[in-house]
Amino acid sequence: xxxxxxxxxxxxxxxxxxxxxxxxxxxxxEQEEADRLxxxxxxxxxxxxxxxxxxxxxxxxxxxxxDKSVEDEVEQAWQISPSDGFSLHNLAIALVMGxxxxxxxxxxxxxxxxxxxPDRDMLRQFKFLDLEWNPAGTVDRQYAVFTPMPYxxxxxxxxxxxxxxKRRP
Length: 169
Prior knowledge:
alpha+beta, NADH Oxidase, two-stranded antiparallel sheet, globular
């Protein structure tokens, strides 16, 4: 394979309360909780990392993830209050998925970011960013999206196709 060009993306997703409520499966939310989550979203936005990997021939990938500090904060919240932990967990997902939808709009349309199987060159890119790829299909960040850019057709390119919770029997 040819040379991969890595580009750091500057993205600034905004907090979409309806998107959060959909992820958290909430029919309604108190204003105080909405204000708390909006503030936390703003605090976490600087911990968002996004990279575009250009493989040439109009093919590439995007990788978006939150720093480990956010994972640690969510884990602490789980230990103190499971309901707070759950709300922050969903907030982290909303932040990463909102950023992914900003970069690859089709992600928002389908509510899914297909996960490709990285080749050896992409695995080197992960290492360069101090990330480890897990053969089960994740990087060592709990809140991360790795997907084709431009969008590459959903399920047909996703390595999680067999275990996808959206899969219909």
